[in-house]
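Per reviewer request, we include the raw input and output of the structure prediction for the construct analysed in the revised manuscript.
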Amino acid sequence: MKCPFCGDPNTQVTDTRENEDGDVVRRRRRCVKCDKRFTTYERIDLKMPHIVKRNGNRTEYDHAKLAGSLKLALRKRPVTTEALEAAVDRIEARLLSLGEPEIPSERLGELVMKELKKLDKVAYIRFASVYRNFADVDEFSEVVREVQARPRRRKGQAGQPDPEHDLFGN
């Protein structure tokens, strides 16, 4: 590490500490030449892939846009903020694990639909109807049938409403 005061490349680390989360390392350094002290920080620098849109344009990944899309699909649905944030985290982890500098927007859309399908079927259908830009009712019906074809949980099982009661528990 080059000294910021005299520019000499010979510095010594005098103290090293991690923050509580363990994602930042703070190092106190001393310049061998001028004896001045300074602090450096090490942080993980992960780069999200750029998104290649259908028209070929490239754009930077936007966390807020992804979260906003999920929130819109989940609007007025019984899904917690924590579940939404966990879904966004899983999508972002998957994007990073791909190790690609660019991914097609279609791939990102498929990851979003996969997460929505697990979270809430209605939100999944909402998102799919906009994302896939259905040309007619038959395409919409096909997605509804796909969701309905999945095996249902037994009555009263955790996370599922009892079919003998309406939305208000009556």
